[in-house]
Write a structure and sequence with these properties.
Layout (H helix, E strand, L loop, with lengths): L1 H13 L3 H20 L8 H14 L14 H9 L2 H4 L11 H13 L20 H12 L4 H30 L3 H13 L1 H7 L5 H21 L3 H15 L8 H16 L3 H28 L20 H12 L16 H10 L1 E2 L4 E2 L2 H24 L1 H6 L1 H26 L16 H14 L2 H31 L1
Antiparallel strand pairs: 1-2
Helix pairs in contact: 2-8, 2-9, 2-10, 2-21, 3-7, 7-8, 8-9, 8-10, 8-11, 9-20, 9-21, 10-21, 11-12, 11-13, 11-19, 12-13, 12-14, 13-19, 16-17, 17-20, 20-21
Length: about 500
């Protein structure tokens, strides 16, 4: 069977469209470059993600979120404190050790460890509340690849680059369901392949990459079912994608209402009889329910009880005021109206989240793109949103004919945005920390890419080509600039 599959692989590779192959190659190169220039354990809580994956691989159970006598295993602890990697975090003046003597001393230390004790940290690990899918994947990679701690780290980083490639494929498949021409398909997949922050996340050990890929799969499968009809396999696949979101990260809980909205849109679009809809719906619900049950069982064993952000997210937390919440969300994106009170929390909104930290900050938030570049990003996002709204108004009749496809792209994105705003508002009721940051919105890249592709597809052919080229070139230059700045910060 394996030999037959290997024989079929060259033919399958030849069937990959050339534009998709080029985008996959770009994503592979950029993700690999990020894995090399980003200092070990130096970005977006990587040290805790690594500790979790290694503990799960060695013990078969999660670390504790609030108990234990060592957060990291001996090898990782030695790397963080013996090689000064901890001091590097948010400290641009510190560089990783270059001396051969340090490398040899670390190797001797690893060799002196008894078998089975090289990396597992029992806790307290703040990420232990996360569900296991990503950590099981990365932990399996660490078990397969022979070598010490740093070999495991680089192998897990490269395994995450493969997740980025899967995300690009899902984006391409989504675009193929929505667009006939190749150019808008390239735009949708290119936004995912070339986005700089997602590229860096793919180059380290971080579960946001898998959550983004799972969310893209959920959106694609929903649109696919809209175009191809309600089937048992189609709804089960949608349930599995939503379940993958739930099993990847606490923010994947947004996939639960997204699944319900997708099912509702599909029912209203196809209008099947109740009997015809029952079996596909049951297949989807059972698949998703199995993932939710696994999530609850697993997180209960870790001591977090299925918690999100350290506690259950409630849509009516203590002290909440619906009017204050709506004002809070409005002022996140727009200036306050005269009737509104000042928003709670710091001056932290659209620019800080969707511009600075979604497109322009790297490392542990100490490497930024230039302010001029970020101003261009802001103008592009705002201008693109306004242009998309104008297209919607101008082509309202066409939009009504395709309301289901639009709803299936927008609904999963809206559910995630709603969840994050509720979580942020809930957090600010008790502390000054707004909790959310740009990378939490990376699962929206599918919807962002589709919006950009609609603009490209609406314009005359030459103008659309110029816009697509400018957009993808800009993302590529931002990625290369981020890689260069991170290289200088880490090693120069």
């Amino acid at each position: 069977m394996i030999r037959a599959a290997a024989a079929r692989m060259p033919a399958a590779i030849r069937r990959v469209p050339v534009p998709l192959a080029l985008l996959l190659a770009c994503a592979l190169v950029l993700g690999s470059a990020w894995s090399l220039v980003t200092g070990p354990l130096q970005s977006f809580d990587e040290e805790d993600h690594v500790a979790y994956a290694l503990h799960l691989a060695q013990t078969g159970s999660p670390p504790s979120p609030n108990e234990g006598d060592h957060r990291y295993g001996p090898a990782e602890r030695r790397a963080l404190y013996g090689l000064s990697l901890r001091r590097m975090t948010q400290n641009p003046g510190v560089r990783p050790p270059w001396r051969t003597s340090d490398e040899r001393a670390f190797e001797r230390f690893e060799a002196s460890l008894p078998d089975g004790s090289g990396a597992a940290g029992v806790g307290p690990n703040p990420l232990a509340k996360n569900p296991p899918l990503f950590y099981a994947y990365e932990g399996a990679v660490s078990r397969i690849v022979p070598g010490g701690f740093f070999t495991d780290l680089w192998a897990m980083r490269l395994a995450n680059v493969l997740v980025l490639l899967a995300a690009v494929c899902f984006a391409w498949l989504l675009a193929c369901e929505l667009f006939v021409r190749t150019l808008p398909r390239v735009v949708v997949a290119g936004v995912v392949a070339l986005q700089p922050v997602l590229g860096q996340l793919a180059g380290i050990v971080n579960s946001d990459t898998l959550l983004t890929a799972a969310y893209l799969a959920l959106t694609w499968l929903g649109v696919r079912a809209c175009r191809r009809g309600l089937t048992i396999g189609g709804l089960a696949a949608i349930g599995a994608a939503a379940g993958a979101c739930v099993l990847t990260h606490g923010r994947g809980i947004a996939a639960l209402p997204a699944f319900l909205l997708i099912a509702l849109v599909l029912y209203l679009h196809h209008r099947p009889s109740l009997k015809a809809a029952l079996r596909p719906a049951l297949a989807g619900v059972l698949t998703l329910a199995a993932a939710v049950v696994l999530y609850r069982i697993y997180t209960a064993t870790s001591g977090s009880g299925g918690a999100l952000y350290g506690g259950e997210v409630s849509f009516a937390p203590k002290g909440a005021n619906p009017r204050e919440f709506l004002s809070f969300v409005w002022q996140f994106y727009f200036p306050a109206l005269e009737t509104m009170s000042p928003r709670i929390g710091p001056d932290y909104g659209f620019y800080q989240v969707f511009v600075q930290t979604l497109f322009g900050s790297f490392g542990s938030y100490e490497v930024y793109l230039a302010e001029g570049v970020l101003d261009v990003v802001r103008l592009t996002l705002v201008g693109g949103a306004l242009a998309l709204l104008a297209v919607l108004v101008r082509r309202w009749e066409q939009a009504k004919r395709h309301w289901a496809e639009i709803a299936l792209v927008v609904a999963p994105a809206a559910c995630l945005v709603a969840l994050l705003h509720v979580a942020s508002y809930r957090a600010l009721l008790g502390s000054p920390d707004p909790l959310i940051t740009g990378r939490y919105f990376l699962p929206l890249l599918g919807a962002i890419g589709v919006g950009a592709a609609v603009l490209v597809d609406t314009l005359p052919r030459r103008a659309g080509t110029i816009l697509a080229g400018a957009l993808l070139t800009g993302l590529t230059l931002m990625s290369l600039s981020g890689i260069a700045l991170t290289l200088a910060r880490t090693y120069v």
